[in-house]
Amino acid sequence: MKKLINEVEIRVQNFFEGDATGHDWFHTDRVRKNAVHIAREEGADEFVCEMAALLHDVADDKFHQSEEEGFKLVEEWLLEWGVESSQREMIIQSIETVSYKGGNNKPPERLEGEVVQDADRIDAIGAIGVARTFMFAGAYGDSMYVPDLEVRDNMTKEEYRNKRSSAIHHFYEKLLKLKGGMKTKTGQKIAEKRHQYLEDFLTQFLEEWEGRR
Ligand code: ADP
Ligand code: NI
User: Is 22 a pocket residue for ligand 1 (Cβ < 6 Å)?
Assistant: First the structure.
């Protein structure tokens, strides 16, 4: 098992080489560590959670022509590694429900899917979440803050992906909503602390923006 996980790590590291939008190997590695921790606490299948976490962004349609293509690649890899069919199915299922898509994705069907979704979303909040948001905005040419822009409440997946506003807007449009959507007790506990950090950051940022000292 350890040997297989090691092979998966190397494959995924190669896949993400050179990405500058916050989808690097280190994001995947943090999500994997979160997933393993949550899986242990919640009594979920640790192998399935670890594999799904390691592969969750490889299947993302941001890196492929279509959604199907991403999943085809992951399926091919799982077959190549000799992962048995029931586990393959659980891994693919867990990856399918990970992504946020502006809040439009379908909910996980099993505990393992909940674990991996929580693990990914935990990495979008807290100090790491703040850093990733500004990296993302920078990479796509968005401003850090545009006070006159309205905060969008309900977005389609396309609006979420293609129409951007500012890094600070992203806090209101996504990051602050993540805590309330945590599926596991363990995920909720971690999210609580990281959510508070987001709130504190915003308070300080907006105070400084207004010129208060
Ligand atoms: P993931 O695939 O990890 O669920 P996304 O692809 O939605 O996340 O986004 C990658 C990172 O960039 C996350 O930390 C996310 O919050 C951030 N991000 C996504 N969209 C925006 C945006 N419009 N502005 C700023 N940051 C964003
Ligand atoms: Ni991710």
Answer: yes
Neighbour-count burial of 210, counting CB atoms closer than 10 A to its CB (0-12 exposed, 13-18 middle, 19+ buried): exposed
CA of 120 to the centre of ligand 2 (A): 5
Residue 99 CB–ligand 1 contact under 6 Å: yes
Architecture of the domain defined by 2-209:
Orthogonal Bundle (1.10)
Task: Say what the pLDDT of residue 48 is.
Answer: 98
Closest atom, ligand 1, to C-alpha of 174: 16
Residues of the chain predicted below pLDDT 50: none
Domain residue limits, the chain: 2-209
Answer whether 0.85 is exceeded by the pTM.
Answer: yes
Q: How far is the CA of 209 from the centre of ligand 2 (A)?
A: 30
Q: Count each helix (H run) and each strand (E run) in the chain, helices first.
A: 11, 0
Over the stretch 164-203, which tens digit does the pLDDT of each residue have? 689 999 999 999 999 999 999 999 999 999 999 999 999 9
Q: Quote the tokens at residue 53.
A: 């976490």
